[in-house]
Design goal:
The complex is a heterodimer. Chain A is of the alpha/beta class. Chain A contains 8 helices and 9 strands. Chain A has helices at residues 22-25, 45-48, 88-96, 108-115, 126-137, 167-175, 179-184, 187-200; strands spanning 7-15, 49-51, 56-57, 73-76, 100-103, 120-123, 144-148, 153-156, 159-162. Chain A has a 7-stranded mixed sheet with strand order 6-5-4-1-7-8-9. In chain A, α4 (108-115) links the parallel β5 (100-103) and β6 (120-123). Chain A is globular and about 65 Å long. Chain B is α/β, with parallel strands linked by helices. In chain B, α2 (36-46) crosses α5. The termini of chain B are far apart. The chains are: A alpha/beta, B alpha/beta. At the A-B interface, α4, α6, α7 and α8 of A face β2, α2, α3, α5 and β8 of B. The structure holds iron/sulfur cluster (SF4).
């Protein structure tokens, strides 16, 4: 999977619920494969389908509506992605086509998992968020927007919203560098730290032997 | 004037990565067959070796059967393959596996302190959100995704945004029949499901000090239900007694060194926290949830709240949705709601002290007709201890089914379930929609309340 994120244009769907947990994003029973793929069919399964066996679509659910069927950006409420640490939630969202979440706040494990999978989480204040939601649901306006991580800007028509994003994580997403490789570049620090720690905490390294 | 968290952090900080992000040492990694095997596979595919396989452990807990006479077969489609793939991956990786049939097998967060793998002053990660449970022994544990688990195994470190500190002070003394679960449900109902976001919560105060280590683990277990980074409790002599002679705990001279360090692991007097919250335990009642989020908890003798009385529109919407899902009406007396199932188990409440409390309630009583009651010990060691004490006989003769150790019906993975729409009083940690099965309605409570309710046939505190 490509873990790069630089700039993305797509349809933004409003899903303004608070405390959406990862059991809701992907119910455990839908995590069937022992791999990172094959998960998107189960995405939001309890909300998306009226019948979980026959997969009958629930017309009320936002992602089943004509305007938002091809959404790749999700507008979310407070504490999105809380609960279980399952990275499956992020794999399912990515496989479905999501590249960016714009919300009030995100669970920290979820936000971490997003970076690891080339997905951007943008935090906005309530007023700006509401503005994006109003636009998205207004049939007379375009529901497309562009998110640019290089300039840290969201563009809707001629309007620009500036956002903050942690510097180092921004570098990781822009370059697509594997975080493990990033840390391995600090191998000297890691080794020195460990050598010292073995003197300070020798009890940690005995494993009961 | 350091807090406990600052001490733990200082010991593990390797270097600063950016403004608020640091590389911290990860002392122990724990995996389970549900998410851990994916991490092992991920590393193998990238041909990245595990830095120190001796600090990585794996258990079988999530999808294994908890029926006696179990094999690799499980009711979950693809479950058997997942179990066998984990076994093979653990072997190839050279890590320690607590397999089916081992007396060390059990729920990851139960076995990790029980075996002395999570020790005071250590950092522990696991691709599982309840890793914070180990805070009960003064370890700093947090849940990660599979990619971060790969990172931790490859480098013994993780980038972490330094959390802020919250002091949750429990004053006073709890009444008989009020447990650690009630203390933490009360806290969650007060600060909310995202009240801990960005914080590490230290549980302190006299009511925490007088809890056993297992009760402290119950408190820490549910820190993640407030979206906290982790939960911790300061080390005292109870902690050191608990850790002594655990399988992977240090011995001899190293034990002495460790203990003298562990004795420093508590917040200093006048240490400054970013936030603090106080809970008076003197008149604390048992707490039970009525909704589909752990924050929707109230004292057992109260009525189901009316969403109309909530001022926040989002909270109101959530409450309406929760009540519909739960099949309840505003104003209904919580303690009169009939139940179909009573479940005791999970990394929150399945340790020997929980089972002793349950047996005390159940002695000489019977589960109400029509109620299905199941008790699943958290680890094989807990099961064996309970069987040695004869507790399991009390639990069984009351009408509870007695099982092998594992996560079991704490969550639904597509295998065993209580049945569509059933109402469960449960000693677990999550009452989310569908968590315990399709349309299953979960009420979280302490093991004591679960046992009492099982005998009455409805939610009951007596
Ligand atoms: S017992 Fe439940 S909450 Fe705990 S690790 Fe297992 S599935 Fe997760």
């Amino acid at each position: 999977m490509n873990d790069l994120f630089q700039r993305h244009t797509g349809i933004a769907a409003p899903f303004m619920h608070d405390n959406v947990d990862t059991d809701t994003i992907i119910p455990s029973r839908e995590m069937r494969s022992g791999t990172k793929s094959g998960m998107s069919d189960g995405l939001f399964a309890d909300w998306r389908y009226t019948n979980r066996q026959s997969r009958e679509l629930n017309p009320e659910f936002v992602l089943n509506q004509e305007a938002f069927r091809d959404a790749s950006i999700l507008l979310t409420g407070r504490n999105f992605g809380c609960g279980s640490s399952r990275e499956h939630a992020v794999w399912a969202l990515r496989e479905f086509g999501f590249r960016c979440f714009i919300g009030h706040s995100f669970s920290s494990i979820f936000a971490h998992n997003c970076v690891r999978n080339g997905i951007l989480t943008v935090r906005l204040g309530a007023a700006q968020l509401q503005q994006l939601v109003s636009r998205a649901v207004d049939p007379l306006q375009s529901n497309q927007l562009t998110v640019n991580l290089e300039t840290q800007q969201i563009t809707v028509d001629d309007q620009i919203i500036q956002f903050d994003y942690p510097q180092r994580l921004r570098g990781l997403l822009l370059s697509g560098l594997d975080p493990i490789r990033y840390t391995q570049r600090l191998q000297n620090e890691l080794d020195a730290w460990r050598e010292n720690d073995m003197k300070v905490r020798p009890w940690l390294y005995g494993y009961g032997k | 004037m350091e807090t406990l968290f600052e001490k733990l952090w200082r010991t593990h900080e390797i270097c600063q990565l950016s403004d608020d992000e640091f590389l911290v040492n990860v002392d122990r990694v724990f995996l389970h067959e549900r998410t851990g095997s994916i991490a092992l596979k991920g590393l193998a595919e990238k041909q990245i070796p595990i830095m120190t396989p001796e600090s990585v452990f794996c258990t079988m807990d999530h999808i294994v059967s908890t029926r006696f006479g179990r094999t690799d077969a499980t009711e979950l489609i693809g479950g058997k393959e997942a179990i066998q793939a984990t076994r093979a991956a653990a072997k190839t990786a050279g890590i320690t596996l607590f397999d089916l049939g081992s007396r060390d097998q059990g729920i990851v967060h139960v076995v990790s302190p029980e075996l002395g793998i999570a020790l005071p002053g250590t950092t522990v990660v696991c691709p599982d959100s309840h890793t914070c449970t180990v805070g009960g022994v003064g370890a700093l544990g947090w849940g990660v995704g599979s990619s971060d688990a790969e990172h931790a195994m490859a480098t013994n470190s993780l980038p972490v945004v330094k959390p802020k500190t919250m002091n949750a002070v429990f004053t006073g003394e709890t009444k008989d029949g009020v447990a650690a679960k009630d203390m933490v449900l009360k806290l969650i109902s007060q600060v909310g499901a995202r009240g801990g976001l960005g914080y590490v919560i230290e549980y302190s105060g006299p009511a925490v000090q007088s809890l056993g280590i297992e009760g402290r683990m119950t408190l820490c277990n549910m820190a993640v239900e407030m979206s906290a980074f982790s939960g911790i409790v300061g080390v005292d002599e109870h902690t050191i007694d608990y850790v002594a002679e655990r399988r992977y705990a240090p011995t001899g001279e190293q034990w002495e060194q460790a203990v003298s360090y562990w004795r420093t692991l508590h917040s200093n007097e006048n240490a400054q926290f970013d936030e603090s919250v106080e809970i008076d335990c003197n008149d604390l009642e048992p707490y039970v949830t009525w909704g589909t989020n752990p924050q929707q908890a109230i004292p057992i003798n109260e009525k189901v709240p009316d969403p109309e009385e909530l001022t926040d529109p989002a909270e109101r919407e959530l409450a309406v949705r929760s009540l519909t899902y739960m099949g309840l009406n505003p104003g209904q007396q919580l303690s009169e709601i009939p139940i179909d199932v009573a479940f005791i188990g999970s990394c929150t409440n399945s340790r020997i002290s929980d089972l002793r409390a349950v047996a005390e309630v159940l002695a000489g009583r019977k589960v109400a007709p029509g109620v299905k009651a199941i008790c699943v010990p958290g680890s094989t060691a807990v099961r064996l201890a309970a069987e040695a004490e004869g507790i399991h006989e009390v639990i069984r003769s009351a009408g509870f089914e007695w099982r092998e150790a594992g996560c079991s019906l704490c969550f639904f993975a597509g295998g065993e379930s209580f049945g569509e729409g059933k109402r469960v009083i449960s000693s677990t940690n999550r009452n989310f929609e569908g968590r315990q099965g399709p349309n299953v309605r979960t009420h979280l409570a302490s093991p004591i309340i679960v046992a009492l309710s099982a005998c009455r046939g409805y939610i009951s505190g007596s």
